[in-house]
């Protein structure tokens, strides 16, 4: 069973977008660029709040 975790290897801030990239087998850079584009297009606030919600909901990866 595959689970979503905050990445310890692909992290810029807290590993959320890196973990999403690892979960879907997509380069985390593509996820980061798409997230920033969506953040700019929605005037930052919704995706800024969503990032912090993800921080508290998605557990951190236990092992390397």
TrEMBL record:
<feature type="transmembrane region" description="Helical">
    <location>
        <begin position="33"/>
        <end position="58"/>
    </location>
</feature>
<protein>
    <recommendedName>
        <fullName>Phage shock protein PspC N-terminal domain-containing protein</fullName>
    </recommendedName>
</protein>
<keyword id="KW-1133">Transmembrane helix</keyword>
<dbReference type="Pfam" id="PF04024">
    <property type="entry name" value="PspC"/>
</dbReference>
<dbReference type="InterPro" id="IPR052027">
    <property type="entry name" value="PspC"/>
</dbReference>
<keyword id="KW-0472">Membrane</keyword>
<keyword id="KW-0812">Transmembrane</keyword>
<dbReference type="GO" id="GO:0005886">
    <property type="term" value="C:plasma membrane"/>
</dbReference>
<dbReference type="InterPro" id="IPR007168">
    <property type="entry name" value="Phageshock_PspC_N"/>
</dbReference>
<keyword id="KW-1003">Cell membrane</keyword>
<feature type="domain" description="Phage shock protein PspC N-terminal">
    <location>
        <begin position="2"/>
        <end position="61"/>
    </location>
</feature>
